[in-house]
Amino acid sequence: MFYWLIELSNTFPPWLGALRTALNVFRYITFRTGGAVVTGALFVFLFGPWIIDHLRLRQGKGQPIRLDGPQSHIIAKKGTPTMGGLMILSGLVVSTLLWANPLNPYVWIVLAVTLGFGFVGFYDDYLKVTKQTAGGFGGKLRLLLEGLIALAACYALVKLGRDVSSTSLAIPFFKELVVNFGWFFVIFGAFVIVGAGNAVNLTDGLDGLAIVPVMIASASFGLIAYLVGNAVFSDYLQINYVAGTGELAVLCGAVLGAGLGFLWFNAPPASIFMGDTGSLALGGMLGSVAVAVKHEIVLAVIGGLFVLEAVSVIVQVVSFKMTGKRVFKMAPIHHHFEQLGWTEPQIVIRFWIISVMLALAGLSTLKLR
What is the CA radius of gyration of the chain? Predict the structure, then answer.
């Protein structure tokens, strides 16, 4: 919405030149990204308490705690409301609509994936709360819905690209090494988006554990989107130039700001849980941004913590089915460290540190080509 101030400034008479120059700052993605961060954070700060009180009143007993999870959670986290993702999504959407270019198709595609995954997660949370069970609706149906949303988004992204790079996978550390998947890229891209959504969902198990790595990944991909969408910078760094994707930096800034606001209430001991509403939506957002800017493999590096959490669950399930033995004391892996005696703050902060290191490693691939 603020982006239209650029067009408005062009209608000012010459004697209002100073005002025209002032409004010209809205032309810069960096300025609008900063505005999106501040707006997202302020929105959640201001309306967060009201949302929490409303959810607590509606949910009564709060989010059901897994009986097969750590026993300490049954007492310490009982009664805490869930669906905190609504706080993040509301701040994200408001901030993005205010600061992003409303004519940019990449913004709308990523927003559609984010809200679509958020709706799937919301329905799952709704069933858990109303039925007071740790299980929502069927996993196969949930994956089917996520897959359909992701397939539609990837098809739209490929059609936007209109060249061979839109269906190609770039390999980090190499200047010109790309693998052209053709239209099979739509399926590959959908797999990336669905995988990212569920990986973040699995990570969301401790107070503050998921939201900070999401913010770190969002900030990293905000920078990548800005560079990929800039012809000069992308040429200098020898990365694929994708016109229009720079505007996704604004959306990533909105996620960063809304995440900061949410962390204020989600810090231990949490006043509210993100729930599937937030974790699926944020994971889907990261996956769709990675596909849009052609940095799918880099997402696996920057979001390595999410990959580790997902792999730990897969390894645990496969090992138990094949051998009857468990590799970890409990999965996802953050629960394994709980069983080893690590305190919740120790696990959370150490995982944050790992996320920062992985983000730096992922960003280094931009120059090492």
Answer: 21
